[in-house]
Fold:
Amino acid sequence: MAKKKKIPTKSELIQLQRLYKTDEKIGERLGGVPAYLVAYWRRKKNVAKHSQPKFSEKEILNLWERFGDDDKCGLELGISKAAFYNWRRKYNIKEKPAFLKLEQLELNFPGLKLNSGAISLYNKQTIIQKVIASQLDTETIEINGQYEIEPDVVLSNGNCQQILQSFMQSKTDLVWNPNKISISLTQSSYSKNGSNPDKDKLIREFVKRQGIKGFFESSSGCSHQVVLESGRILPGQFVIGSDYYTLSHGAISAYAQSVPEESIAEIW
Structure:
């Protein structure tokens, strides 16, 4: 007997609509649910039909000015290189950016003012301030200010088993954004738990069910290296990880932060 589909909650439907827009795509994400059934659930839970394009002109232009490359821009949105190119054509964005926004993240470090012609660091912003300002689409970030931003990448590795257990105790069955989650089965050097085939199988099934593309087997190598080699973490992004080595991504001008396993599950 086929297993009955669980009806998503209103918050889950809103979350899915934000990511996938159309009832057809939402149905695919839920495992082959017909579009008319998704529409029925929306009406029942008073969720209006999405009427805006999947990606706005501002969003496409901002990515193009940041990376200037269809492949990298598409990776950021979870679409192909050709798909991003078609979005650029839709909004008539054809010219290559003369200067990439990422170049503005470069800093003059303290101690470099060796002569009167050197650039003063007075009232300049740190790399972390610049990354947060870019996320919020604003010019400046105040010290000691409180801001709410969404991470570009959430990375977990050898302790993913505990994170998965915490997530399964939450009130939702769907992760917040499968395109921004990276999972590696590589054990970190400080992990107390060795590889467990049964638990690794649960993680693989979870990854497949959630549609997470950023998944790496233990044979792929160090988790923090493979995410860089695959282009999943780029300069200027906000990265959250489940171990202390996450901070190493600051080497490419990303703002990387380590948080407890329970926090990773909450972000998922």
Summary: The chain has eleven helices and five strands. The mean pLDDT is 82.
